[in-house]
Amino acid sequence: MSPSLLCVGLVLLSAVPASADAGRPVSGPLTSEAVDTYVHGYLASAPLPGAAVAVTRGTEVVRTAGYGTDSRGEPMTADTPMGVASVSKSFTALAVMQLVEDGEVALDDPVVEHLPEFTTADPRSDDITVRQLLTHTSGMADSTFDEKAAPVSADLAGAVARSADAGLAAAPGAEEHYHNPNYQVAARLVEVVSGRPFAEFLDERTFTPLGMDGTVTVDSAERVFAAGVARGHIVALGRAVPIVEPESYLNGSSGMVTTAADMARWLIAQNNGGAGANGARACRRRASTPRTRRSTRTGWARARLWAGTPGKHRRARRWSRTAASSSPTRPTRRCCPRAGTGSR
User: Fold this and answer.
1) Using CA atoms, how far apart are residues 172 and 110, in angstroms rounded to an integer?
2) For the chain, which residues make up each domain, given as ranges?
3) What is the dihedral of CA 310, 226, 222, 9, to 10 degrees?
4) Residues 230, 10: contact at Cβ < 8 Å?
């Protein structure tokens, strides 16, 4: 079975490839020593203060470790809490799929059937389905609703209400537009259907069964720091400058705080039909059947990432999802087979 790797850096530069040697796979057996060699080489060639890494194979953890230091100068470890940005969406998608497995929701149900409070300025939003939220094909988009410029919400209900005056960029199902509020609406749907706060639902159905004791989901930047995450820094004019965190709503779309050790447990469940190494299940096997047809294609793209110096950009590779398609792709296994989270 192919290994799974998760590497979370402290700064945006983690997305920038290092030298050709550091970017090449390490030959030979996959061991903790090989992982250490690769990561140390990467950090030596990239301006990263530190990183947390999780590597798994099947139901076994090959390596979880921290390297370097965080922005406070504290050593990174496998248990250092870190925000994982849009990786959070995979947990929201799983929560929705758990409701699907329970028979409480169907992927092609209109969202308003379960969440009557959801509305936009475009009447076509009544036709948006649960599936379209998860695949970013709802028609909602940054071009019609600038989330970061909107008033900050206190909870998921408020986050959903912010879209009431926004339009749609396309008819539901017609186009893909990566848009964080899709997953905020999905998280609110989980709350309403389950009758429990979103964080409580995740803790009961996913974190506790999989033994992810160091993972929480939060709803504001300040609560990210309250969970123990060090503030990040960027390099500007040769000096480290603290990042000013955006005052945007996080829960459902990007509010997960976790550790490399816990993400190893998550990777194992993803590659083991929804079951953790401890045998507990976050979802049933039928929700993790390998698929050869997906609603979005995944491929390498070139992106321009702001990388430390004002006005300067660096080329970087990133995973990108293209327009909606049903073209065959290689089989994938995940707890949430149709819940494409995309990436930025």
Assistant:
1) 11
2) 32-272
3) 30
4) yes
151, exposed or middle or buried, with CB in 10 Å at 0-12, 13-18, 19+? exposed
d(CA 281, CA 20): 40
What's the token pair of residue 152? 């900050």
Cβ atoms of 177 and 141 closer than 8 Å: yes
Q: What DSSP state is assigned to residue 15?
A: G
Residue position matching structure tokens 């491929």 = 299
Q: How far is CA 140 from CA 86, 145, 230, 251, 343, in A?
A: 17, 8, 33, 18, 16
What tokens appear for 150 in the block?
Answer: 């909107």
Alpha-carbon torsion, ordered 15, 31, 274, 344, to 10 deg: 0
Closest CA to 309 of 251, 242, 234, 247: 234
Hey, is 55 helix, strand or coil?
strand
Q: Scanning the structure block, which residue is given the tokens 């706060």? A: 197
Per-residue pLDDT of the chain (344 residues; tens, 9 = 90+): 555 555 444 332 222 333 434 445 556 678 899 999 999 998 888 767 788 999 999 899 999 999 988 877 889 999 998 888 899 999 999 999 999 999 999 999 999 999 999 999 999 999 999 999 999 999 999 999 998 888 888 899 999 999 999 999 999 999 999 999 999 999 999 999 999 999 999 999 999 999 999 998 887 666 676 767 776 666 667 665 666 666 666 789 988 889 999 999 999 998 888 888 888 888 875 554 444 344 444 333 333 333 333 333 333 333 333 333 333 333 333 344 333 333 33
Amino acid residing at 343: S
Helix, strand and coil percent figures for the chain, each rounded to 5: 35, 20, 45
Question: Which tokens hold the place of 51?
Answer: 């990183």
Say which CATH superfamily domain 32-272 falls into: DD-peptidase/beta-lactamase superfamily (3.40.710.10)
Give the rounded distance of the alpha carbon of 60 from its chain centre.
22
